[in-house]
Amino acid sequence: MLKYGSGGSIINTSSISGIDGNRGQLAYGASKAAWVSATKTMAEELGANGIRVNAIAPGVIATAMTENLPEEALNKKISKSNIKRKGTPEEVAGVITYLASDLSSFVTGQIIRVDGGIG
Q1: Is the dihedral of CA 34, 39, 41, 45 positive or negative?
Q2: Cβ–Cβ contacts within 10 Å for residue 107, how many?
Q3: Which residues does the annotation mark as catalytic?
Q4: Per-residue tens of pLDDT for the chain, all 119 residues
Q5: 83 lies in a domain?
Q6: Measured between alpha carbons, how far is 73 from 69 in angstroms, rounded to an integer?
Q7: Burial environment of residue 65 by CB neighbours within 10 A (0 to 12, 13 to 18, 19 or more)
Q8: pTM of the predicted model as reported, rounded to 2 decimal places
């Protein structure tokens, strides 16, 4: 993007665990927190070149990863959500589509939670 001066949108994937932490997931949460920091730094460094950098932070999404969670832990996370259900991959993809589009042309350096209101 820098080489061709075309601008663009970079979308990183973090997790609510990288923002809120999660008992028993130190390494996972720390790696996702690194994406939060990288996103904000990249947005600051690349913005003048017309490159937007944002990240999504999914919560409990219906994927193979959440299928392997113990039922009690899964239900506890879902109960913290305002919407009281797992999200879908399509709902995450909708946010990514928005961030990749010109509709978000003034959005950069943001970590967008896709979590049904956990928090």
Answers
A1: positive
A2: 15
A3: 28
A4: 999 988 999 999 999 999 999 888 999 999 999 999 999 999 999 999 999 999 999 999 999 989 888 899 889 989 999 999 999 999 999 999 999 999 999 999 999 999 999 96
A5: no
A6: 7
A7: exposed
A8: 0.93
Q: Is 73 exposed, middle or buried (0-12, 13-18, 19+ CB in 10 A)?
A: middle
Is residue 39 within 8 Å of 12, Cβ to Cβ?
yes
CATH code, 40: 3.40.50.720
Q: Which two tokens stand for residue 44?
A: 């600051």
How many domains is the chain partitioned into structurally?
Answer: 1
Query: Domain range for residue 31?
Result: 8-58+90-113
* Residue count of the chain: 119
Q: Where are the beta strands (DSSP E) in the chain?
A: 8-13, 51-58, 111-114
